[in-house]
Design brief:
- The protein has 1 helix and 11 strands; from the N terminus they run αβββββββββββ.
- It is α+β, with helices and mostly antiparallel strands.
- It folds into 2 domains: 1-37; 67-247, no CATH class.
- The chain has a 6-stranded antiparallel beta sheet with strand order 2-1-3-9-6-7, with no helix packed on it. The chain has a 3-stranded antiparallel beta sheet with strand order 8-4-11, with no helix packed on it.
- The longest helix is centred in the first third of the chain and has 42 residues, at 2-43.
- The chain is elongated, with a radius of gyration of 44 Å.
- The model is unreliable at 1-14, 18-26 and 29-37 (pLDDT under 50).
Length: 248
Amino acid sequence: MKDRTIDERTSSQRQRGSFSVLALALSGLLFTTVLAVGVMGALGGFTASITNPASSTTGYGSGTVLLSESQTSGSTTNTCISTGSNTTASNSVSTADANTTCTAINLFGGQVAADPGVAVSSATVTVKNIGTINAATLTLSSSGCTQADNTAGSNTYFGTDTAFCSKVDYEIYDSTSGNCLVPAATGACPTTLSNSYNLSQFTTPVSLGALSAGGSETLVFYMQLDSAATNADQGLIATMPLTWTLSQ
């Protein structure tokens, strides 16, 4: 009886031990399966990617509206740029993008010894959009004509007329379009200048229309001392700042 009791306990313990081993085996198998799934999830799948690097061809930048003015005298060509430089190399565009000191170009032809109603002087100038943006308008404007004593050469007599600007007649011809701008007319300007168009009346900007990037306009300025000038107009000079404006 005593031996049987011992045998029953041993059998029961053996059964519990089998269950424990089985549970441990199942737990190990489950952990292995989870680990395998986790590893498979981390290593599996296809991918593809495209990177657009930062460069001047993939960025977003601004264009330029820049103006050049050039005039040829003999074998010399003088050029002014709206950035305030006489060259297009290494330019730095200021906030104003304006050149207010272009003294190398004379739109009045440099005549300082004119006779009343005798000679018509001319000056040719070319303006060009050297930027990358098409401009909607190109205009020529003035802040007004002023007069002074003409000290050029050996002048020692200076007239007393205070309205000398009104004695200087002018015309502007656009040789690119083939039309007269001042006075406005289709085709060439009149061969005889009229006092109806004198420097004292140059108060309204002259419009030349649109100017595309790389486009240019060549203009000819004709000047004459009006035949109505008197002795009081001797030894005087008219000066007037002229501004080209190129706008987007």
